Every structure is written in C-alpha cells, then in structure tokens.
C-alpha cells in the first residue's frame, strides 16, 4: 500500500491528470511529480522502486552498525517513472541517542530534497561554500556541500548519477556519521542488496514539512 499522491514540495493535495493536462497539479506549485510513501510492505515497495526508478535509489552499504530502514518514498508516476527517491534510515547517533538519515536522489526541479531540508525550493540555493563532507556513491567519490537548514537537522547536497544527492540527518550533530566513509550503492544496479537490509520501525521523517511557508 502507498499513501495518497501529494505535492513533493509542500505535501498538499493534488489534482490528477485530466483532459486539459496530463500532469498532476498542486494549487501552489502547479505541475509536480506526485509524491507517495510506501505505507505497508516497505520491502516490496523498495524492490519495485529499485526496478523502475529513473534516478538512483541510494542505500548505505554496509549499513552503519545497528541501523535499519524505516521507510521509502518516491515522486513520479507511471508515465515518467520515479523522478525522485527517498530512503529513510535510523539508528544510534555517533554522539549518543537516536538519529535519522534520509538519502534522496532527485531530478532538478522536483523539490523533494528542499522540503525535507526545510528550505525554499525546488533546488538548493547557490552553493558558494567549500564542500564539507564526502561520500562514495556507486564507486565515485562525491563531494557534499552544506545547506543552510533549520537547527534541528543537518543537510548536505551534491551530484551523483546526473541528479541531486541529498543527505539529511537528525539531529544536526548526527552529521558526524559522514566522517565514517559512508558508501552508497544504487539499488537499481544491485537489486539483491534489498534482501540484506534490516527493516524496522516506520519513520515520520519522510513527512517533514517546510519549516517556513516559503516553498
């Protein structure tokens, strides 16, 4: 089962395609790629997404110790395929206590990563600072730039697979996880990795709304 289609930028209700338009439309953001979450059987939702997404489906490999998958979501429809994917993971923070990490791949203009980062979208603002983190994505070193976000989280963005790669962490000091040489694989290329993942308690992070009304 999946959630009802919603705007990836504001989670608002959408008007489905009709005789006048073949696109889903938000009253605020006009034509958008409909956002859905896998609300039941996330393992199966992730397998189907890995086989059909038009962008990477990033997953840590190996998963940090005692971390698990807490949810999966995507933006797109049967006509376009998923233009954005999001994997929610959770586990112990390097500084103690629980932490959450979302990995988002999205085509420019989708606005999903910006919403989850808590910034005005659809794409990150001008990145005029030096990169502050690095991951390995599909075998390639990938620089990540910090994004100014609300103080309850840390947001980083880079480019991998020809689209945006967002790494979003709660609380902000969980960003220390990025010092541990995080390696990401694309499930679209390695679908059997899904069988090795541990699934745990559902997350509510995928439903994070903008911290401000600006979107």
Describe the protein's architecture and organization.
This protein is mainly beta and 215 residues long. It is built from two helices and 13 strands, in the order ββββαββββαβββββ. It has helices at residues 42-52, 112-117, and strands at residues 14-15, 24-26, 30-32, 35-37, 58-60, 68-77, 81-92, 98-106, 133-137, 140-147, 154-160, 163-170, 183-186. The strands form two sheets. Strands 4-6-7-8-12-11-10-9-13-5 form a ten-stranded mixed sheet. The protein has a three-stranded antiparallel sheet with strand order 1-2-3, with no helix packed on it. It is globular. It starts with 13 loop residues before the first strand and ends in a 29-residue tail after the last strand.
């Amino acid at each position: 089962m999946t959630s009802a289609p919603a705007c990836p930028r504001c989670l608002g209700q959408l008007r489905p395609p009709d005789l006048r338009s073949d696109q889903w439309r938000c009253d605020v953001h006009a034509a958008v790629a409909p956002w859905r979450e896998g609300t039941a059987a996330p393992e199966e939702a992730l397998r189907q997404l890995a086989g059909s997404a038009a962008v990477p489906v990033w997953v840590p490999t190996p998963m940090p110790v005692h971390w698990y998958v807490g949810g999966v979501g995507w933006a797109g429809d049967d006509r376009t395929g998923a233009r954005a994917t999001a994997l929610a993971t959770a586990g112990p923070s390097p500084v103690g206590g629980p932490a959450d990490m979302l990995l988002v791949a999205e085509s420019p203009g989708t606005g999903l990563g910006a919403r989850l980062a808590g910034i005005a979208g659809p794409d990150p603002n001008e990145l005029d600072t030096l990169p502050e983190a690095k991951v390995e994505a599909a075998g390639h070193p990938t620089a990540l730039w910090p994004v100014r976000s609300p103080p309850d989280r840390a947001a980083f963005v880079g480019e991998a697979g020809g689209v945006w790669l967002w790494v979003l962490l709660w609380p902000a000091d969980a960003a220390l996880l990025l010092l541990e040489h995080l390696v990401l694989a694309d499930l679209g290329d390695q679908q059997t990795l899904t069988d090795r993942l541990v699934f745990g308690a559902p997350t509510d992070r995928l439903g994070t709304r903008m911290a401000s009304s600006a979107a």
